[in-house]
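If you are new to this repository, start here. Below is one unmodified record pulled from the training split, so you can see the exact layout before writing a loader.
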Amino acid sequence: MALAVGTHGKLYSGSYDTSVRVWSIADGSHLATLRGHTFSVFSLAVGTDGTVYSGSNDTTIRVWSGDDGRPLRTLQGHTMAVTCLAVDADGMLFSGSYDRTVRVWCGLTGANRHVLPPLEKAIVAVAIGTDNTLYVGHQGGAQTISVW
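And here is the target side for that same chain:
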């Protein structure tokens, strides 16, 4: 399961049933179900503009309108499950995958701007610092964090 807090009092949950569900934080009511992935949803992120990003075991990232939940685009490039997502203050999307890569996407256009060199193990976490430092967690005998 994946969770992300959105704008306008919304909470998003990703599930093994391939969906992203939208919930009201105020009263817990189910607002919508976003469908498009063909396998489990492993990761979610919300941009500062409210755009919702979901990463899946189907190797894709789906981009959704935070206003009405309509699908905006599908990002393709990873060759294995997309395990983690993060969005920086400028709207750049960072995605990590079991394929051992981190990809950098333009959140506005969906263009794949950069692919970091593959690490030795699967990527399981990405985070962006306030100074735009990228932190990447990857599997191994012990969890390892790389810094860019």
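Two things worth knowing about this chain: The chain is about 0% helix and 50% strand. The mean pLDDT is 93.
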